[in-house]
């Protein structure tokens, strides 16, 4: 029997020629690939090894933001009232400083502070408060001066981490003139980063923080650029030229403000306060507001005391900031200040009485030096007896007794539904009219606020037990009101602009404009257009909004306007001494308002018609005395400038009006 041959001893058949060729090709290909890899490794490690080591240590790229120049703010004729200029800036790169909490770092702060005219602690606080990356230069001081710039450049070894560069600086060429309108800039705050108003703006960037700078920051800010710098592993520049993406300047904002009128307003306020003080009045503050009654465009506004917004172009010292804050210069008295209006309110009372049917053009009343209402005798200023007068004469001579009687006739059950209150609210008093500036009285509201804040049920909060006036508050919480319910006496006071009435110059200007134009109550507006950096029109902004149209009978309006004209330019008028010889037709009303615990508040509100340049101006001087003595002459100076007339300050002295 023949046994089977084991498989391992069986003869193998030869591979097909085609398969043999494929195997050979693959072998050659594999060998070639391994040869290429081996050559590449040899090339990288032997031939280019030192170069690759250098590249490996120089593969860091820093991206440094380049702030964009802010757009200009222009007046109505294109005059620059805020712009940007280039200055030298000292900055510190935190990563390049000597180690923290070492003597070397503090000595550096001391040397730098001495050179820049700062305190070492100020530099320390700036660096400690930085939220930007440590490799990004942190601004220490702008506009350092040529001497400091040269010293830092020539003695760089003595100031490690300190650099000098160019920076775009906000420039306010007119100093304090227009400060409240323009506002100021400052570093973006932590809570502002990422907000809708400051979307996309990085920490450390200067943005608008008040006034037009804030409201129109999106237009003025521009688009920042970047500087990409190659640095080695130690953080030092490699010498390779940086890649720079240039910033795009912000657009310019054109406003309706007339800079010459704005300037004259501040000068007039200073003079009014000076003359009031010479007359032994304190004259602590003043404000003015001017607008076009046809359109709602704001022509000028200002508030004194004021400040130079350049103070905030770089971070001010704490002492400088608190000095400005304590002076009250940051308060916008023109739009947000509230003061008793005195007799400037009488035209509103007159309209209320006419439209309620309580008086007519022929109504004659007010005889006697005082009128008895309830148990109180309400006097004219100086106890003067004007006799019975009609409405036009009552406005001309500012006869309080006429309006006391009318106030009693228009009394209401509460302070919210009376004819005077309704007329005043319809014309814009009792509410912030709204204006493109940041910011923003009657009995029920005051009572609600106090009861909600200080009472728990019918008892005062226990924490107030040791406070002055606690006994009064016990009664107030028990009866549900702090101030007495509305009385006829309060309505009598309201009729002459006293009692619980307070208003700002802006509110009075809006109200008078509505009377002048036949009932259109505007939301005042400053911004007119957006222009490119080259001056090309980008966008014409919408006209000022109309809040409401108030129905005013044309005949009633004519009576009030006649009274206002007589008050300004009739020999018996309360401001005749100021405007009697003024070459333009003037409609105006003085106001001398009693302010509890203070000297009288001086007011003047006026209108001058003109086919091309009509204007309404409201001026007030806190503790300035008679309206004709302080506020009215200031208004005349502003009107003289507006109409190109010779400058003449004519002081008046109508007691109590």
Please, what is the CATH homologous superfamily of the largest domain?
DD-peptidase/beta-lactamase superfamily
The CATH architecture of the largest domain can be given as 3-Layer(aba) Sandwich
Kindly state the number of beta strands: 23
Poorly predicted regions: none
CATH class of the largest domain: Alpha Beta
List keywords for this structure.
Beta-lactamase, 23 strands, 657 residues, 2 domains, 21 helices, single chain, Penicillin-binding protein 2a (Domain 2), alpha+beta
What this model shows, in words?
By secondary structure, the protein is an alpha+beta fold. The protein folds into 2 domains: 66-255, Penicillin-binding protein 2a (Domain 2) (Alpha-Beta Complex), CATH 3.90.1310.10; 259-340 and 432-642, 3-Layer(aba) Sandwich (Beta-lactamase). Helix content is 35%, strand content 19%. It contains 21 helices and 23 strands. The strands form 7 sheets. Strands 2, 3, 4, 5, 10, 18 and 19 form a 7-stranded mixed β-sheet that branches. Strand 21 and strand 22 form a beta hairpin. Helix 11 (346-355) crosses helix 14 (419-426). It is elongated, with a radius of gyration of 37 Å. The relative contact order is 0.11. The model has no long low-confidence stretch (mean pLDDT 87).
